[in-house]
Amino acid sequence: MNDITVALFIAILAGAILYMQIQKITKNIDQKVAYEQSDENKFALLRQNSQKYINFCDAIDENIRDLRALINDGAAKNDECKDKILSELSEISKKLAFLQSMNQNASPQSWENSLFEILSKIDNLVNENLNDADEINEKIRENLREHFENM
Predict the structure, then answer these.
(1) How many CA atoms lie within 13 A of 19 on its CB side?
(2) Which residues share a beta bridge with 76?
(3) How far apart are CA 29 and CA 24, in angstroms?
(4) pTM over 0.85
(5) Distance between CA atoms of 80 and 76, rounded to whole angstroms?
(6) For 33-69, how does the pLDDT look when each residue is reduced to its tens digit (9 = 90+)?
(7) Helix (H, G, I), strand (E, B) or coil at 22
């Protein structure tokens, strides 16, 4: 009877250890699968956010084209700085195109910082060089706000 009890105890102990090891392995597998799925979800979310920002960049570029048309129609404070303003708008537009192509997987904060910098440059450029600068800036802000809300 003693031998049977010892063998039964060892079998129960081995079964318990085997059960705990199986639970540990399946838990690790479940965590790894969940982690991989969360990475895929994060990447998809970044891609979706990036598309929104890319579309917003297109709206900013439309406003830059409108500004160029205003400048060509004589909205500049003086004709001497007209070429300089158009050149700066071209540089901003190039930077915007670069931002669209290179930041596709960037975080929303990175997008917002870059776009804020670009919009600030446009705002300052309009304030310094165009007649009715406040009105023009307000119109640009309103257009961009509407576009951003509709995204």
Answers:
(1) 6
(2) 130
(3) 9
(4) no
(5) 9
(6) 666 666 566 655 656 667 888 888 899 999 999 998 8
(7) helix
Q: Rounded CA gap, 47 and 27, in Å? A: 30
Q: How confident is the model at residue 117 (pLDDT cuts 50, 70, 90)?
A: very high
How far, in Å, CA of 58 to CA of 61, rounded?
5
DSSP 104: T
| Structure tokens that stand for 79 in this block | 């004709």
Tell me the one-letter amino acid at 99: L
On the CB side of 55, CA atoms within 13 Å amount to: 13
CA distance 93 to 87: 10
Sort 7 into a burial class: Cβ within 10 Å, 0-12 / 13-18 / 19+: exposed
Give 87-113 pLDDT, tens digit per residue.
999 999 999 988 888 877 777 788 888
C-beta neighbour count of 71 within 10 angstroms: 20
- What DSSP state is assigned to residue 20? H
- Rounded to the nearest 10°, the torsion over CA 115, 117, 120, 126 is -90
pLDDT number for residue 36: 63
